[in-house]
Amino acid sequence: MPQLVPVTTARIGEHLPLLQLLSDKSPLSWVRRGEGLVGWGIHATTKVSGENRFRDARQWWHKQLELLSATDAVHTFGTGPILFSSFSFSPDEESVLIIPKVLVGSRGGQSWITWIGNGAQPELLHRPAIAEKINYTWRNGSLTPIEWQARVAEAIQAIQIGQIDKVVLARDLNGSADSEIDPRQILRNLEEEYPSTWCFSIDGLVGATPELLLRLNRSMVTSRVLAGTISKTGDDEKDLALAGSLARSSKDLEEHEYAVRSVAQSLAPFCSSTNVPDSPFVLHLANVMHLATDVTGAIAETSQHFDTFSILEKLHPSAAVCGTPTEIATKVISVLEGMKRGRYAGPVGWIDARGDGELGIALRCGQISEREIRLYAGCGIVSGSDPRRELDESQAKFTPMISALSKI
After folding, report:
1. CA distance 108 to 16
2. How far apart are CA 79 and CA 10, in angstroms?
3. What is the pLDDT of residues 230-253, one digit of tens each?
4. Is 66 helix (H, G, I), strand (E, B) or coil?
5. Looking at the predicted structure, is the pLDDT value of residue 19 above 70?
6. CA angle 349, 394, 198 (to 5 degrees)
7. Mean of the per-residue pLDDT values for the chain?
8. Is there a cis peptide before residue 325, judged by omega within 30 degrees of 0?
9. Which of 43, 288, 312, 337 lies at a 20 to 30 A Cα distance from 379?
């Protein structure tokens, strides 16, 4: 029998600015309003793909846990061994799983550090902001804006003749930098400008998502559904009026209803009870507003243990990033989008040794490869959609990343 590797979790006396602790250019992050988890170093990593990728991920994670011996002096949500996970949108592409060597967490006034190995507790240092200015050259992605609008028009036609109810079409934008791109400063800029989002980074995929796909904590499950979007003007009075128009928009309410229904239906088999509010609220971000609904449920007490992997398998892809019916929407996406999504619009976040965890949908993000970055944005298409307005909405969804990159 192999010797078990120790995993130690200890309390930290002071509250630390998580994103200022990251010590290398391959950071792991899941942070919102200064709380969450950051990690660095790789204890173990793997990639999974195929229709069984969530089950394969669970199997690999459990095998890794069998080799660890954990000592946890904190015992709260997010302590102990943690698996950072970034799943692909499509089963045909690779998902990335990483167990960090060092992890620092903060939640509810508590801060802690977890490290793997026999060494002493790692020293934590505040890393200064990166001052180097990076210049970007932007070019069209897989489709030009005109080509993408034509694909949206095709989708609208398919909806209007009854082939499908809703489909989400995404587009990409490619940027070339004049020096290597460091995700740490991108994360800091995103946190400063979009504090209500979850700032994430896993294996070069970095972004700030407003959409929580799944939080599972002590048998309570939560999913925040976003669908229906309008751009902000920066004028408070005008934006208040726009929020009202969004809340009354039949097109946006229809898009939102499909997304909420798909999440509620996916969670129902796991829950003894669920709560779905009758109407959405308007979520205000720095540059856009979304219709939002928080769906919650209590996991049923059965002989079968339901964990994050179990729920992800049924929950992804939701209508918020795919469409409805799911199978038809998936086929329409593969025909019309003209690109590979990679891990964009897939589940991203972390899972602990108990199978609890917190994962969002990888939105408002980009994939970094040294001096290249590929940004993604998607829009929900329903019968009342207009190709030009959808293009404008997608451009607004590129803004968080372009803004974060321009400040470097």
Report:
1. 13
2. 9
3. 999 999 999 999 999 999 999 999
4. coil
5. yes
6. 20
7. 94
8. yes
9. 312
Q: Of all helices (H) and strands (E), which one includes residue 264?
A: helix 250-267
Please state, in angstroms and rounded to a whole number, the distance separating the CA atoms of residues 45 and 377: 28
Q: Facing residues of 291 across strands?
A: 282
* Percent of the chain that is helix, strand, coil (3-state, to 5): 30, 35, 35
Q: Which domains does the chain have, with CATH numbers?
A: 136-406 (3.60.120.10)
CA neighbor of 262 nearest in space, from 226, 291, 298, 309: 226
Cα–Cα distance for residue pair 279/181, rounded to 1 Å: 42
d(CA 76, CA 23): 24
Q: How far apart are CA 55 and CA 31, in angstroms?
A: 26
Average pLDDT over residues 55-74: 97
| The model scores a pTM over 0.90 | yes
pLDDT tier for residue 131 given thresholds of 50, 70 and 90: low
Measuring CA to CA, how many Å separate 257 from each of 166, 380, 394? 10, 12, 20
Question: Tell me, what amino acid is at 382?
Answer: V
Q: What does residue 266 show for φ and ψ, rounded to 5 degrees? A: -70, -35
